[in-house]
Amino acid sequence: MLHRVWKYGDNINTDLIYSGRYTYTVLDRQQMGQYALEDLDADFATQAQAGDVIVGGTNWGNGSSREQAVNCLVELGIRAVIAKSFARIYYRNAINNGLLVIQCPAVVDAVTMHDQLELDLEQSRIGLNGVWYPFPSLPASVQHILNAGGLIPYLKTGYKPTT
Fold first, then answer.
1. What DSSP line would sit under 22-87, residue for residue?
2. What fold is seen in the domain 2-137?
3. pLDDT at 162
4. Cα 33 from chain centroid?
């Protein structure tokens, strides 16, 4: 399956992903998507489609720890965020809320806005213009959480930690 790309630069912080002015006024998660990336790209929320992919540069998601910066993308149906690097709290929030995050600097350098790419999670690679770019495999535990739709749904499946 091909995914349309929305490409942005370095240091895209959580306030650009989901503005702080909505943090305490928009509490319904289903409404959050309409404000995604509003201060960075005014057209994004109205033109993005389920299955689209965001590509960012270094330090994607730095700033506050607000989960709305992940949830607004999940609510729009964004398939994944691919970046050169992620802020640690954003990366963990993404996994906890079921958003696929992939570190693949080579793809970030090669892709342009509205390109189409293919995600092959089984082979840990991204296809772009006939070239396959490898990325580090996701640990099985992370894959299980993402497949369940996030940490809470995963735990509700009866997960039992091993010692």
1. GTTT---HHHHGGGTTTTT-TTHHHH--TT-EEEE-SSBTBS---THHHHHHHHHT--EEEES-B-
2. Aconitase; domain 4 (3.20.19)
3. 61
4. 13
Rounded to two decimals, the pTM is 0.95
Query: Do 86 and 61 touch, CB atoms closer than 8 A?
Result: yes
Q: Contact 70/20 with Cβ under 8 angstroms?
A: no
For the chain, give the longest Cα–Cα distance: 48
d(CA 152, CA 155): 5
Strand bridging mode 80-83 / 100-103: parallel
Strand partners, 134: 125
Contacts of 113 (CB under 8 A, 6+ apart): 5, 6, 7
CB atoms within 10 A of CB 29: 14
Which residue from 153, 15, 21, 34 is spatially nearest to 97, judged by alpha carbons?
A: 153
Q: Is the pLDDT of residue 25 over 70?
A: yes
